[in-house]
Every structure is written in structure tokens, then in C-alpha cells.
């Protein structure tokens, strides 16, 4: 890490603290040359590999914008979407992989979205899983009815009856 004041390549860590709910570390550093202090933030990188082979950093905002389209006209708040994106990121990071396929991000979205709103889940799944006919919708609706009797998903803290 170069000192932002004198560009010296050497510094020592004076203090380290968790930041952003433990997803990053804030370090207070002191330059060994000029003695000035500065802060750095370290995060574990997570890359998403697209179908084209291009890798880009994981973005919660992309998850939110993709899911927001499925939630149009549904009683889903921005806070709900932020929580869903956080849950998706946490589940992906829990896998321990530094690089993940975009397809796996979509799979990680499906379960939390199903718990959030069944209609939005069906919309997202129809695009993500490339439904081609009404039979695909009927099959998915049948699965949802079997998993969620009464049309309501089980609350996240309670197991679903099967």
C-alpha cells in the first residue's frame, strides 16, 4: 500500500476494525517514511463470470435491479429488496468461492424471492429458467402449491410443511 502523501511503499498497521457488518476490515496505517496516518478498507473480492466469459465484480445493485423488475406492482419495498440482495450475497460468499457463474447468482436469488413474493418469484423464474409454454408455468405453479399450501410462503424462521 503506497502512502497517499509521499508515495512510500511501506506502512505499518496501527489499528484494525471490522466494518460493514463484518464484510470488510478498516485499517488505520502509518507511513514509515513521513509518519502521516491514513485509512484503508479491505474486502474479499467476489467475481461473477457471465455467459460471455467476462468476469465482473459482484454487485448487490444488479441483483436489486433484476429482482425489482419481477416485483413491479407487487407489495415489495426497497428494504425488502435490499435484504434479499444481502441474503443472496451472504449465501454466495458462504460457498467460499472467489468466482461464481452468473447462473449460480440467479439460483441463489430464487429461494429468497420465493419467500418474499410468490408472484414475483414466478415472474423471475419464468425469465431465468426460460419458460417456453403454459405447461412450464403450470408445472411451476403446481410445485409452488405443493410447497406453499394456501398460496403463502412459510415465514423464513419456520420450516415449510411438505
TrEMBL record:
<comment type="function">
    <text>Negatively regulates transcription of bacterial ribonucleotide reductase nrd genes and operons by binding to NrdR-boxes.</text>
</comment>
<protein>
    <recommendedName>
        <fullName>Transcriptional repressor NrdR</fullName>
    </recommendedName>
</protein>
<dbReference type="GO" id="GO:0008270">
    <property type="term" value="F:zinc ion binding"/>
</dbReference>
<comment type="similarity">
    <text>Belongs to the NrdR family.</text>
</comment>
<keyword id="KW-0862">Zinc</keyword>
<dbReference type="InterPro" id="IPR005144">
    <property type="entry name" value="ATP-cone_dom"/>
</dbReference>
<keyword id="KW-0804">Transcription</keyword>
<feature type="domain" description="ATP-cone">
    <location>
        <begin position="46"/>
        <end position="136"/>
    </location>
</feature>
<dbReference type="InterPro" id="IPR055173">
    <property type="entry name" value="NrdR-like_N"/>
</dbReference>
<dbReference type="GO" id="GO:0003677">
    <property type="term" value="F:DNA binding"/>
</dbReference>
<dbReference type="InterPro" id="IPR003796">
    <property type="entry name" value="RNR_NrdR-like"/>
</dbReference>
<keyword id="KW-0678">Repressor</keyword>
<dbReference type="GO" id="GO:0045892">
    <property type="term" value="P:negative regulation of DNA-templated transcription"/>
</dbReference>
<keyword id="KW-0805">Transcription regulation</keyword>
<keyword id="KW-0547">Nucleotide-binding</keyword>
<dbReference type="GO" id="GO:0005524">
    <property type="term" value="F:ATP binding"/>
</dbReference>
<dbReference type="Pfam" id="PF03477">
    <property type="entry name" value="ATP-cone"/>
</dbReference>
<keyword id="KW-0479">Metal-binding</keyword>
<keyword id="KW-0067">ATP-binding</keyword>
<keyword id="KW-0863">Zinc-finger</keyword>
<feature type="zinc finger region">
    <location>
        <begin position="3"/>
        <end position="34"/>
    </location>
</feature>
<dbReference type="Pfam" id="PF22811">
    <property type="entry name" value="Zn_ribbon_NrdR"/>
</dbReference>
<keyword id="KW-0238">DNA-binding</keyword>
